[in-house]
Amino acid sequence: MKHGETVRQAENEPIHLRPTAAVAERVLLPGDPGRALLLAQYLCERPLMFNHHRGLWGYTGTAADGEPLTIQSTGMGGPSAAIVLHELIALGVTRAIRVGTCGALDPTLRLGELVVARETLGADGTSMALGADRLTRADETLADALATGSERYRQTGERAWREGRIVSTDLFYERDSERNVAWRTDGAIAVEMEAAALYAVGAAAGIQVACILLVTDTFDEQGERTRIDDEALTRGAEAMGSVAAAALGAA
pTM for the complete prediction? Predict the structure, then answer.
């Protein structure tokens, strides 16, 4: 190629993901690249790196049910998550579950609990730009499978869980207590950054998308944050990943 020449990009050809291994039709979507590696090693036999471009680590391996599973990090926030899911869909993904972290809005939620996000209030710019309604919803079949798996975990004494409405925002360091009160009034029990965008992308493409979250932050009446410790975060991520992988296999 001569200097200054351009390369024509096929309409559905990924730009930000550069596959170096096969992609499965089902995918787990953690935000953190390190958590993608953790889950790939924990959930998959012989995982191969699927992508490392732009630091968005992704892996494909064989899950416990003997079927391929891809685990692809999305980065932080709705814009990055929307790009990643859009390109995964172009690569053949048909089922996706976000496995992320959240802050508790409901004061009865505790660190380390799981939250199945049945629906999401879009307080973010990405879902709005995608034309989604303020309330976006998980795929019902996948959400039911997540609820079933979470309840099975609870019955073994492993981990408490809740299901319900969450809110997606563009800010991690949210200091506006009035916004938190308004979100709680609207029924949100937890806050995170990516689910609304992922639900909007999935709905537009006609694929199944759901979300399960680990509570990693709680807040007191003054808005001061209490953060989960690293060991509990790792154990919780493994539990969340196990529930989500099983849900993909059952749905």
Answer: 0.92
Give the closest residue to 19 by CA, choosing from 80, 92, 75, 91. Answer: 91
Give the rounded distance of the alpha carbon of 56 from its chain centre.
14
3-state secondary structure of 196: helix
> What structural domains and CATH numbers belong to the chain?
26-250 (3.40.50.1580)
Cα distance between residue 20 and residue 126, in whole Å: 28
Write the pLDDT tens digit of every residue in 66-95. Answer: 999 999 999 999 999 999 999 999 999 999
Residues 6+ apart with CB under 8 A from 47: 40, 41, 59, 60, 61, 71
**Closest Cα to residue 26, out of 121, 142, 116?**
142
pLDDT category at 11 given cuts 50, 70, 90 is low
Would residue 170 show up in a list of annotated catalytic residues for this protein?
A: no
- 3-class DSSP state of 173: coil
Task: Indicate which residue of 217, 220, 229, 230 is catalytic.
Answer: 217
- Contact predicate 87/16, CB 8 Å: yes
